[in-house]
Structures are given as C-alpha cells and as structure tokens.
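Next up, a specimen:

>
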Amino acid sequence: MNRVRVWVRDLAMGVRIAAGGGRQGWSRTLLSAAGMGLGVALLLIAAAVPSMIDGHAQRIADRAEPWSNTLKPGVHTMVVVDANEIYRGSEVYGRLLAPDGDRPPLPPGLTRVPGPGEVVVSPALARLLASPDGKLLGLRFTDRTITGTIGDAGLTGPNELAYYEGRDSLDRYGDAIHRLDHFGIRSPATDMDPLQLTLLIVAFIILLLPVAVFVATAVRFGGEQRDRRLAALRLIGADTPTTRRIAAGESLLGALCGLVCGTGAFLLIRQLAGAFTLQGFSVFPSEIVPHPVLAALVTLAVPAAAVAVTVFAMRRIAVEPLDVVRESVGRRRLLWWRLLVPGAGLLALAPIGGTSYARVSTGVVLLLIGIVILLPWIVQVAVQPLRRGPLSWQLATRRLQLSSDTATRAVSGVTVAVAGAIALQMFFTGVQVQYIEKTGHGGAELRAESRPADYPAAKSFISAIRSTPGVRNAEAVTRAELEVDFSNASYPFVIGDCRTLQQHARFSGPCSNGDVFVPQELRDQFKAGSHLAVQAPGRTVRKRLPVTTRLIDVPDSHPGYYAVYATPTAFDLDGVNLRTTIEMRLDPTRPDTAERVATAALRLDPQASVTTLKTTEVRADFADIQRGLYVGAIGVLLVIGASLLVTLFEQLRQAKRPLSVLAAFGTRRTTLALSLLWQTAIPMVLGLALATACGVTLGSLLLKAGDQPVRIDVPGLLALTSAGAVVTLLVTAISLPTLWRLMRPEGLHTE
C-alpha cells in the first residue's frame, strides 16, 4: 500500500512540474499530446469499425425483400422489381414498386408508397441530379416526377444513390418480379473462410501496430530537456527511482492531454465522416461508435504505455546531480537480445504442429516489433564508421553517432508500416487468385440487358442502343426459354432476323422469315412439327415447331451449341418471356458512352441493366475486404505522415540551441537543411532495407501458413518502399521553414 502511495505521489509531482514548467514545459507537453492524440483518434476509429460494419449490415437487412413464390396478392402485399443502375462507376440502388392493395408494406425511409410515375430519391441522388455532373443521369428521370426524399432509415449511408419508383403494374417483367408483404430480414452472420479471416487479422495488426509504435515514440518527446530538470531534482536529494517516477508523471500529463486531443479529433472526424465516400462506402456519424471494451482499453492503455515506456527508457539514462550521462556518446548496443523477439515471431509463424489464429497474430506482432528493436542497433553500427564527406554530411553523421535515438524513432513508424504493407501485399496477392472468377466474356466491353414486352419492343431496344454515339460492334440477341414435350431440359431460344442469326450462330445458307434452325446435335429433340413448351408470365404456352426447320452445324466451342435459332415470324411471341442482350465495344474517344447507353436503355426499360464486362472479377466478399483495407491504409498513411511531422518538429525543438550556435558562426541555411535531410535519410534507408527483408519474410511465412505458393510482386514492393521514402522526404521538406525560423540569435537566450 505504501508503494502505491509513493507512486501516486511522485506521478502527481511529475504532473505538477510539467504543468508548471512554463512555456518550454507546456510546449513539450502539447507536442506529446498532439502526437499521441493522432494515434488515439485512429485507435478510436478502429474501435468503432465493428459498430460501422454492424450498422451497415443491419441497414441492408432492414430494407431487404423477403419475397415468396407462394404469396398471393392481397391488400397487404406489393410487387417489387430490382432496378439497380451504374452511373459513372457508382452504383444507384433502385426499386420499382407496384402495390397489390391499399395497405402495402412501406420500405424503410418512406412515409408512403410513390404512385405511378412518382419517384422518391435519396438526398445524395437529389443533389447529383441538381448538379451539372448529373445531367446524363437526369435524362433517365425525364418522364417521372420526384416527390420526396428517402429518410436515413432506408439508406446504407448518407451518400448512397438510391430511389424508389411507383408503377401501376409490373407484370411485363415476368420472373423478375418479387411479391412480399413486409420489408426486412434478420441480419445474417457473416461466415468467412480461414484465408479471409487470417487476412483480416493480419491486416488489423499491420494497420494498427505503426500507430502503437508512434504513441510509444510520442511519449519520449522532449526527453533531453526533461533530463536536465531531473538532474536538478537529484541535486536537492531525490533518488533515482523517484526521478523515474516523476519523469513518468510528466509523460502522464502529455498522455492525458493526448487522450483529450485524440477524443476531440475523433469527434470531429466523426462529424465530417458523412461528407466522404471511400470505395463506394459511406457511413452515418451516429454509427461511428467505439466498442465500449475497446474504447476503455485505449483509454487505459495510452496512459499506462506512457508510464511504462518512460520508466523503461530511464533505465538507460544515468541522471546525476547537474549531469546527464545521455549527453555523451552511448555505449554500443547489444544484438543478441534484440534477435530474440523477431526469432520468436519466426518460430510462431513456422508451419510446425499446425497453424492457429493466435499463433499467426503473435508471430506477426513479434516480427514487426522486432523491426523497432533491431533498427537502433543497425543505425548505430552503420553510422559509426562514417567520417568524411561534405559539411552537411558530417554534421548529420556526427549527430547520429552521438545520439541516433530521436532520428531512429522518427522513422520507426514508417519502417513498421512499410514492412507490414509489403507482407500484407504479398499475402493479399497470393490468396486473391482463389477469389478471382472467370466471366467468360470475350472482347466486348459493355453489356445491356432488357426484358421487352414483345419482339417489336426488343427491336426498338436494340435500335436505340446501336444508334447511341460511341457504340461499336453491337451484337444483339433476344432469347426465350423453351422445353421439349418429352424432355425436362431447357434450351435457349434465340430470336432474330436472318443476318443476326447467321452472325451469332456462324452458319451460312438460305434463310427467310419464318425459318427455325437447330444444331445437328439437337436434331432428335427438335423435329419439325414437334411441340414445345415456352415460358410466359405466370404460365407456360404451347408452340409447334414449324415444318421449315433446318439443321445447321455449330462449333462445339460456341455458346450456342445447345441453342435453337428462330426468325421472328416462326412463332407467335405475344406474351412470351423475352430477354434481349446486347454486347458492344465502345469508342475510347467519346467520353460518357457507357452512361449514354445506360440512359437509352433505362428510358425504354427502367429494369434494364447495363454492366461493364471484364474477363475476370473478384468475388464480392473478398472485394469488401479489399475495400476495407484500402480505406484503412489511407487512414494509417495520413496518421503516419502527420506523426512523422510532429516527431521532426520535436527533433528540431531539441536542437534549437545547437542550430542557433551554428547559425551565429555563419553556417549556411542550405547546409543545415541538408544536414536535417541526411539525419532523416540515413535511418530511413536502413529502415526501408530492414522493412523489405522482414516484409518479404513475413509475407512468405503467411503464404506458407495458408498453403499458398510464394510470389514476390517486385513492382509492388518497389512502389511500397518508394512510398515510404517519399512520405519521409516530403515531411522533412515541410519542416524546413521551422528549421530556418530556429536559426536565429534568439535561440541563444536562456532562462
């Protein structure tokens, strides 16, 4: 109990000394608070990620459409058709609504069901339609009246583009209609496969560990000025343990101020978050709520880290009355114990005795922390032999030889971030092959699909798309679904004029309206005069195969190998379910061609879809993880850049007096600027080399743990290391005005 009272007393004294230390004391405290505040803000945002994900999933579940094929029309039912669109790469959520009775269910965010020809839009869509950028999109709504806006309860985010349109009937859409009597389902639990879960765990650690490293670095700001105050305390009788506790108290004040600053920054970011969209994801500020347990952990961990790091750092400093040993050249650092931490990480990641999430997490943390521990030794060993060179080089190397701690800490966060990014990029690239699916599309770039009411409507749809400026090589096909009387098999029924059929099926020979063409392989199923069952809305109609049925040869690699081809007058197509598909190339010299195609398609058929074609596509669940990593990486990069800037400002503040002395003796500004650059560049180059080696090692071990082949993406690796170097050099350049301001005679004044 007495020991606790001693700790509380000395910590409180340290807080009072830091608070009453005048301008110099408060400048150090506020600088530490700014540095730790950046880390606290990002940690609180990370703690809010579960609530953001749950809120987003719940909003999607609340407006989901639990339709049923057995539900009969009634006063409480409604018919819904999916009418999603794409506009300039952004998804537009759309639904067509046709009530069966006078008391239909209401979608979330609506106060009434829009009537025929009425549209209710989201606030973001209303703003887009009112802006010049939404001119082409507005053409899709020219014959409809916007009568209101969707409330927050019906949107997944404040910037979502969405609309609900009322119709009197949706029967023409056939099997695309869904009948329901309520909206909303229970939010399903998301199941992830082991690779996805491992990727998320690794990403979370890699994104947050650099922030933790910087928080530990910010705790030690202003250490040299603090040591001189502690030396004075030793002069009046304080022992070494007491000075350590008092020093921890000074850091504790900075940590508490950092918590306040970080919380304020978090609240500000939270309010501004609704104005931004990243990778198609936006979030309401009310859903950015840190998990209580994680928020409490951050609140307790930051002050505890401040005290622990300060006490640990003071063990290397001999504070005597009026003397601080750290001002002299430090002793050579030992290597053996620094290898234990990364060695333990490598052992945890080794594929021995199976792999668990706990082992992977522990291995990643230990290996990345090992970088922070190894970097000071590498810098010390590397700079000791450096002697000759220009004056700026000598000033930098001599400073690093005397004390490389500050410069090393300045780049340690960047080093950990780059190492983690390299490992994550390797792991991501290695496993994404399993989540890429081939689409089977050829050279077409865009596809438009519609469900026309009849064949004349299909021809109008095809003509409108082909006449759109910028469309090239548009291949159009209209299909119906048919079955043979004696078989349960279904076959595509392709309808078109002779030119279209010959082009699509790649056959030649006589062709006239009324003909039907059957591949040789289907001659037994489709004989002249046989009966067919053709799907129509809500029923099946019977058709007879005409006598003018001809056999054709279709290559077995052709998608129409098992299809039947018919000219428009071969059958009576009234009321038959039709689907028209047009695949086309686009003129690269004409901008917005895809939007013009979508406008032409949706004006004829609001349920038409226009999609960009790719040879491959990434699975949706994996794409969500990719999007989240992208957003997190941007946040970490911003924090790392800001934290590095704060660290350099602290480094300059500590060097205020030597800079003033050098300026008084006539040292040029360019010399000191280059000296500052070298002081950052040397540890940075060494750190990036270490980060590359550790990142590649960690990435390889993660791939081995996931039973994936090891691939090194050299261009990506170079891009990541270059990004780390650019961030460091850019921040150094930004700090130059502060350097020049410190090169004044006023810096020689003392109190």
